[in-house]
Design brief:
The chain is α+β, with helices and mostly antiparallel strands. It contains nine helices and eight strands. The chain is elongated.
Amino acid sequence: MSMQNKAQMVEAVMFFGERGGVCKQMLFAEFEALLDGVVNMPEFADQQVRIAYVVINPRLLIKAAVFFYLDFDEKGAPDSGWNIPLQHLSEKAGRGPDLGAGPIRLACRSQCPVSWHQMHLWDPSLAPGHNDLILIRDAVKRNSLGLLVEDDKAQAVAPERLQMASEDNWYAPEASREAADRQAEKLDQEHRLKTAQLIKQQRLRITSLSQQHEEELAKFKLASQEQAKSLQAQIQGLRLALSQQQELNASLKTELETQAASFQAAREALAEQLRAQEQHGRSESDILRRQFEGELQAKVAAAVADYKERVAIRDVELAYRAEQEGQLREELERLKGEREQQAGQSGEQVLERLAKLGVIFVVYHPAAGHLTIPLQDVARYQDNPMAYAAAKCFVSEAQYRQWLAHYQQPTCEALLPSGERCAIPIDRVDSPSRFAIGDSNCCARHKASHRLRTVS
């Protein structure tokens, strides 16, 4: 084998499919060309793909691995703002399982040497039968990339170079016992090392499963809180409509009772006059009766005409008001459209020009880390940065704000009998999803009193 063809360490990238398993492999130089926009990958269009960066030795054994995410747009081009230092992470990574060449250097979500890149990494599955580390080990062994392999077979010793010891040195009990002791000690050392590596692998798997469970629990908690808020808003709206309808019914009932009392009073007054006139004679009584009926009919007709006129005036006023409201609404919609058009033409054009120049919008929020904000999410982030960061942490905005106050000043927030805060330093909770009011922000003494009040 010539010097230029001598096998050496190789960097490669492996893509995982949505159903698991390695679906594509390429050398790191090809991956850099993909990032530079030389080629696209339409099969990954509009997807977030799980990828593993691996360092392979000349015997096709893995020495280091970094598990990371990469987003592709609708045309299959990778995210232009992606900037994870894979080689640096692989060099600074902690120890992982042994894949044949000793413990590998492993960088993943639960074991990341650079904290602000943690959100862009993922944890490999270590479940039996679906172990991602075993999948990439077997893929490297198949050598689909055509890597040069070092021939590690031992060279046979020529017979003429063999030398025979003298007969007096054939038996050496003491030396054999020492060699056996050294061999036993070496085997015991290897057994201890393998046991420690197995324990570390199981701890890594437990950490990965715990983090996945916490993320799923945070998602379900956020969804339930949002649903409860929506139902509460609907109940409040129905209560308000019911209250308004009850007030309107009460007003109409009062007006009807007032009109009925007025008619009853008028009828009683006329009836009294009729009884007084009946005493002076039937003829005069008939005249008064006819006069009473005429006046009553006239009053009723006048009252009916008056109410009809009021109703007509009210209808005209309502129609005019509805017309004015429609005109005002149309004017308001037109002004909103013009304002949004002007704002969009100014702000969006500037952001698009900056994005085309390669500017990346990155912000930092505690727990969420450094967030790369896509161009289409900039407006939503400007409206409410806290809500955007809370969504990335899978918690509500209120819980994130309460956790942030605790994170910035981890002291007990319970109130003493004097009205002052306890302010005893406590352990900081690093994850918003594990933060609980009355427990995470209280010292041990106030936690106990809170639990007693809860039980009682």
